[in-house]
## 1
Amino acid sequence: MSTLVFLEHHDNELLKPSLGVLSKAATLDEDVTGVVLGSGVKEIAPEAGKFGAAKVLVVDKPELEAPLPQPRVDALASIVEAGGYDTVLFAASVLSADVAAGLSARLQAGLNWDLTDLVLQDGELVGKRPALGDSVFVDVGWRSEPRLALIRAGTFDPDSETRSVEAQVEEVDTQFEDFSTAATMVERAHAESEGPSIEDADVIVAGGRGLGAPENFKLVEELAQALGGAVAATRAVVDAGWYPYSTQVGQTGKTVSPKLYIACGISGAIQHKVGMQSSGVVVAINKDPNAPIFEFSDLGVVGDLNEVVPKLTELVRQRRG
Amino acid sequence: MKIAVCVKHVPEQARRIDPETMRLDRSGEGAINPFDVHAVEEALRIKEAHGGEVLIVTMGPTGAQDSVRKALAMGADEALMITDDGAAGSDLVATTNALAAALEQEGADLIVFGQQSSDSDGAVLWAAVADRLRLPVISQVADLDVSEGTVRGKRQTEFGYDVIEAPMPAVLAVSDAINEPRYPSLKGIMGARSKPQRSVSLSELGVDAGESGSKTTVQALNDPPPRGDTVKIEDDGSAAEKIVEFIADRKLL
Ligand SMILES: Cc1cc2nc3c(=O)[nH]c(=O)nc-3n(C[C@H](O)[C@H](O)[C@H](O)COP(=O)(O)OP(=O)(O)OC[C@H]3O[C@@H](n4cnc5c(N)ncnc54)[C@H](O)[C@@H]3O)c2cc1C
Ligand SMILES: Nc1ncnc2c1ncn2[C@@H]1O[C@H](COP(=O)(O)O)[C@@H](O)[C@H]1O
């Protein structure tokens, strides 16, 4: 195997999910290469050695300043072709999913996504992919090389103990296609510190689009208050401007593990699940009996949240006095 | 302005993978991927604001006709379908090649995708199609501005909200929060049947899709890891009491 791992970075730091995938790759292939694409990123590359990268390739270009996918496809395509890599691994993110998919089209290379494990079976790389709302676990493979894979967010933890090496850092050049640099970033995301913090709460009451209107978040807030917990939200309602981003749970939001998670009017998309799957007890209230959330709830209530939640708040208040 | 919208026909309920073919069972009732309804709606709004036409593009089984009709009933103008038995079992590369070949001949100013397909959760196809068509792409767009030859999208990443701008022609994927889709009117439903619907085969497109054009495989199906005891109840007016009991039993109250 000859594996390349895409190392995403933000604010001058390599990101944990990428380093987790790198650590995993190092257990499958002794000779893993990491790749860092950006502008002014040379200094952060050596860090990857701690997580098992024998070599780190760096493309340092102004075109790679903004975290946009298409110039990264150009860079990776030339690196994969020149280096003959047979496997390219990505930790799933908004950026890396677009990079991986673009690379798949460019190289006509198979991409498997949402993998929660990678194993070698009789020398062949096999991906483990929970599918259909995680109701079936599929073994997936590739018909040809290079093999591309996106690993589900939060799957592998970085390991800086077992395979730490002194990484050899090498700068490489690349050419960009015209269309790849056509999109530009007008405003760049920055950490928003406003809003409540939900990471340390023992009890979380989360609301989704099933609340029907922003003002109905009141129902969720009152229940949270009665339980002494915090309020969380899905991306659908955050994107719609109903609730602040700082309360969002999921792939592009927070990862939480409260003792109790009560989901109200939330369908249970995988991207939401990855942010709350290590919660202790999950209770879901949803009017659709087929909602995926019931696949990972300890107690599922098929019902109208407008009926159930106010009653629940009242009962909790009575019990807690 | 010409706006193409890529929609997928997905199985409605009781989704299962057929252990014989290792493919998703698409024999039952299907419907338009709910995420793609937002893409259709957004295209219609752009058309209403700027003029133009909306073309629905889909690759899928013959049942995909139902999804196309729903989009036409909402107000789209015409449809292009890749309905070819040879397309069954297409993976990302195969689907990309087929859709890109079909779209290439249409010369759309905007190509709009939904957030993800509900049966595969890839959330990847747009970036692959954009690369094939050599067009700029903006994904996860929750807020869209279209003006004189450019599109501007606000979208969420792991770090907050970006704003990205691209010249047209461009590829977009929209978030499920971008709009509240309309329901087709009776007039729309009646009118849908007479709108132009074209079909194209893979050989006409000169594309090898289906399993032979795919680069990935499904090798085995396994049961998910067992879960602890779980309870699912229907609210008969006493659900709130039952929740209280449930969490009190677990010393969480
Ligand atoms: C790259 C990417 C990243 C993403 N990141 C995240 C993330 O970090 N976090 C996240 O949450 N999502 C994320 N998503 C979006 C995710 O895929 C879903 O679209 C989103 O979680 C859906 O939110 P929802 O459950 O509130 O809305 P919906 O999916 O619309 O679900 C609403 C639910 O409410 C139920 N309902 C309606 N009315 C009632 C009622 N009266 N009583 C009870 N139930 C009712 C409905 O049956 C339905 O199940 C991401 C998607 C992508 C592609
Ligand atoms: N077979 C298809 N035909 C047309 N469009 C599709 C098809 N499959 C997926 N799409 C579009 O691509 C988006 C993302 O799909 P996916 O990457 O499979 O999650 C969907 O929301 C649709 O807009």
## 2
Amino acid sequence: MYGGSPVTLVPITYKGGIYQHDIVIDLIEDLGGYIIQKHVIAAEVVLQCFVPREDIDLIRQIAKPLFGEVTDTPLVGTEIAIVSMSLEIHHLPHPSCDIAEYVRRIGAKSNMVSLARGPGKRIAGLNDEERDVINEHDIAVYLLGNFESCIEYKMPTLRRGIEVPIVLCGGPDTETLKKIIDPPVDGYVGNVGRFMRRTKEADEIEKLDEIIAEIIRVLEKKREEIQKDPLSVSPARLMGLINEKVPAIHGVTSPTPLTVQMAGLRVKLPYDTFAGDLRKLEIEDGILIGDIAEVVPSRMRDYILVKILPFSETNMVI
Amino acid sequence: MPAIDYFEVECPEPLGAEYYRQITNDVLLDHNLLRVIHKLHIYIDPKVPIFVAVGILKKITTRVRVGDFANVNPLEGKITLVISDETYLAPMLRIFWQKFGKEHVEQPDRFTVILYDVKADLKEIEEIIVADPSESLYKDLIYAFRCIAPEGFRLRSEKFSKEKFSFVASENTLTENIDEIIQEKFACMGEVP
């Protein structure tokens, strides 16, 4: 399709019984939507998908007799790096895992990136592999400690070379964080430093909601930026295409063999074997993936990273 | 659970002190150490940086006897023990085997142990000491304070005695005047190191 008004796809989550859920899957696909992830948990199905905005009511209507539930989940189709200072008992499982798990509930694919030399003040550092891995995500959520002077001292080192938006969580209140971080980062959540208890009280859950709200706000801004120079193809569409034409992807045992990002896709297949084939994959009318996207090796294992180029570089939107 | 008589966290950043107070409380509670600490003073200065914890320990006997976790019922020449907590089951069996011989000890299921033809009365069996958790107390305390102290503070100096302890940690080489700091912090609690 060249020109014309593009359909706006919005992220939603469908939750319902396993009985006749294929009707919903067929419907979403017929409407031109994409299913990003499908979880079958006992007798329940959870579908994270992109659907055309104007058809959400139709899906609700058809899912009603099946007792299906459709909710807005703005983080579907994003990959978030939860940057924890270490894998020691000091930071895990609380708060790092609590936050990583909470963002998963509203659709995000979260990866925990733990730094080899994260803890401490003078000794804190970020190596090139960590920097590159963080840069492969849509957003980085930094979980720092409780002391203002420590955060002020180590943050310039920890953010060196990071190009993705950063949301900073730390013990001091939000105003103080804003004051001590120069140049500013994209988002701040105060009063979430290091703690050694599970987040289960109402006020602690509220804090997690605050982190989510901040992540959504920052990602919305990024989405708007992308809209100004739209991508040549939707990452979800590429996902559907690879699923259909690269059978090897079905043999991958990772929970998400294809991870959709806001402007790309992580393909969990070995780069050396599959990168060439991926580049030559035809999307439509003779346009190949290699024409509209960069297929590069990921720093995460030997995966492939597909970075979709914007309209301004390829002069086409399909 | 008895509370600590004196518990202070001193820090130039008031909010940081409040968080560390919470962390200390959570960690000590998780490791079941609140009952052994009488007084505790923690001093953190992230600018130096240094972490100091000084305290006074309680004198408690924590020996675990058979009667603490098992119901002992004598019946027709045999003694049946119904175990309520499996934690000390293995050391208890080992002691029984040594004392009475394996042929007199039987364990039909996880929570039952039967003693046959043993020449010991009920009281005697209930009083057998199975374990003494205070043996690992210092190890537990050091582990707990390592959890409480900021993670980057890896250079440590610890002194643990029967009644008092001090724990100092920093990420820089510890200076010679840490003894003075320890003395000062003990004085805050009205004690001497």
